[in-house]
Amino acid sequence: MKWAVLPVLAVAAASCATGAGVTEVTGPAGEAAPGATTAGAVDTATSTPSTTPTTTTTSTTTTSTPSSTTTSPTTTSVPALAEAGPLVVDDEGVPVNGQTRGVVVHPDGWLLPVLGTAGDAWSVWTPCGRQAVVERGTYLSHVDVVVDPGHGGDREPGAVGPGGTRESDLNLAVARRLVDRLRVRGYEAVVTRPGDVRLPIVTRAEIALALRPAANISIHFNAGIDAPHAGPGTETYHQLDDPGSRRLAGLVQEGLTEALGGLDGVRWVGMSDAGAMARPDREGRDYYGVLRRPAGVTSILVEVGYLTNPGEEALFGRPETQELVAATLADAVDTWITDPTAAGSGFTDDPIFRGYGPSGAGGVDRCEDPPL
Length: 372
Ligand SMILES: [Zn+2]
Hints:
Bound molecules: zinc ion
Strand order of the largest sheet: 9-8-10-13-11-12
Number of helices: 6
CATH superfamily of the domain at 142-338: Zn-dependent exopeptidases
Shape: globular
CATH topology of the domain at 142-338: Aminopeptidase
Number of strands: 13
Strand content: 15-25%
Distance between the termini: 28 Å
CATH class of the domain at 142-338: Alpha Beta
């Protein structure tokens, strides 16, 4: 992988004109990305040195989201993208997955799947699944692993523990640690959301499709069961039709139940059939949108433990436990990539029916895009 210097441009005057915190951004300010190695077993992006002229553009924009320290600081050169056409949406106005290539990493941390060029700028898929033009950010064509912290934002906290811990916060904390662990191991990885913000499933899926990772891992903590369980009630969901997804889920399940099961004094809860499994919907497709929508990208969803169990809420709130979970997940990914004979374990081949209800994914309606 080569690192190229990219011009950092200012955002074009957009429709956002609200709020305080006006920030003036002046380009160009190209900065060399830190070196990193890419796992040999993983498809790597081919890129040519950037020849994009470094124009100086100044504009103002508002910032309302915390900038992230965990989105990738790496840049790749601008590929030969075609001029973007209009965003294709379905009958309900939801954009159709699979129409982008690469993402622009916005200075505020948003990953914006790229539809194509728009003159000297990028035409992107916004967090809410709309089309916008941005001139600011760095293009990223590929990563090895996409890490997706489930839920986010005031309207979608996910599970909430008896002590008030929000699943969305815990997911993000573990996701950021996992990205750090993966980078230490030489993998390029990103998180799908830059902070405590809402991101519709359709956009999470598009980020995975745009970045063509070896693996897309959605991190969750569970709710609702209070039946005692002999060990961790970890559930790892794989895609129905992807053997690689099944194997990765087995390695994650194996690693987490072993690592967490080694902790003393925890009163675990869980379903009697907790394990690595698939979950079909009524039509026999993957129930979880984050597994169904990025078809062709190997994806899993892990419910690490039960946040609604007071003992587990306290346990997973500790930084050392979050590190243990992240390290275990990174180990599982590394083993999956480097050792094709590692099969994983803990598979539940005939799971208890878990329902067809809504998965809490949220649509794109009533979604408010950030200033870009
Ligand atoms: Zn969740």
